[in-house]
Write a structure and sequence with these properties.
Largest sheet: 5 strands, antiparallel
Radius of gyration: 20 Å
CATH architecture: 4-Layer Sandwich
Strand content: 25-35%
Strand order of the largest sheet: 10-1-2-11-12
Distance between the termini: 49 Å
Structural class: alpha+beta
CATH topology: Glutamine Phosphoribosylpyrophosphate, subunit 1, domain 1
Number of strands: 12
């Protein structure tokens, strides 16, 4: 399992992913799940993956190989004119890998399923995000649905729903995501540190990759401890339930 979030703000995009993969409770490892391609001054594209590790690695490898080897059959993600077309290529590649993974094609889909968040900006368009399903279809971010999650989403979603604002600063958004990931990590053993974090400023066409967040990161530890204390304080200040006496 994993946990990844892509979030759109008025000033750009923010991506965060964990790095934990597991094949049982005694077999954990660290694997990168965030990947970026960019052409300075022209485009920036970031993918985050969740699901079967062999499937997601094959998708990334195919996208990488095809971006370096021009083909007559179709433009690569570095040649597509819009982010919508990039999402179509990623979706088709994901479906291709899943279909070719099992001996029975589509009947083996569930065993090899994966999902992807792809986001970025191509010159002439706006920064945007897409959530791509194992079947290859996808949806785009909107004002009513301003962030996407893949993997173990349920524990970290409440704070995003309650606290997100489109005009938040990058700094406050990172703080919000820290709380979301900390809540998920504490609730689910299959999600864990370190965390990868990237900020993209609108019209910059350059990703800003921030230092990997490890267990020893002072800011992460401060947020984790302070959020726990703030929750306990808030709980104690809520009106107490009144038991009915006999």
């Amino acid at each position: 399992m994993t946990y990844c979030v892509g979030l759109r703000l008025k000033q750009g995009l923010v991506f965060m992913s964990d790095t934990r993969t597991n094949a049982g409770v005694d077999n954990f490892s660290v694997t990168k799940k965030m990947f970026t391609w960019h052409v300075p001054g022209e485009r920036m594209i970031t993918l985050m993956t969740a699901g079967n590790l062999a499937t997601t690695q094959a998708v990334i490898s195919l996208l990488e190989e095809r971006s370096k080897q021009p083909s007559d059959r179709s433009p690569t993600i570095l040649e597509q004119p819009t982010m919508f077309q990039v999402a179509r290529v990623v979706g088709a590649t994901l479906m291709e890998v899943i279909e070719n993974s099992g001996p029975e094609g589509q009947t083996a889909t569930s065993q090899f399923k994966a999902s992807v968040i792809v986001g970025g900006q191509i010159k002439g368009g706006m920064p945007t995000l897409f959530l791509i399903y194992p079947e290859g279809n996808f949806i785009e971010i909107s004002e009513d649905n301003p962030f996407f999650q893949i993997g173990e989403a349920k524990y970290g979603k409440p704070i995003l729903v309650r606290a997100y604002e489109a005009d938040m600063s990058f700094e406050d958004t990172i703080k919000l995501l820290m709380v979301s990931f900390d809540s998920t990590i504490k609730a689910n053993l299959s999600v864990g540190l370190p965390l990868d974090l990237q900020v993209y400023a609108k019209d910059s066409f350059e990703p800003t990759e921030l230092p990997r967040i490890t267990q020893d990161d002072e800011y992460y530890q401060l947020i984790s401890q302070s959020w726990g204390e703030a929750l306990r304080t808030a709980l104690m200040h809520l009106p107490s339930y009144k038991l009915q006496s006999d």
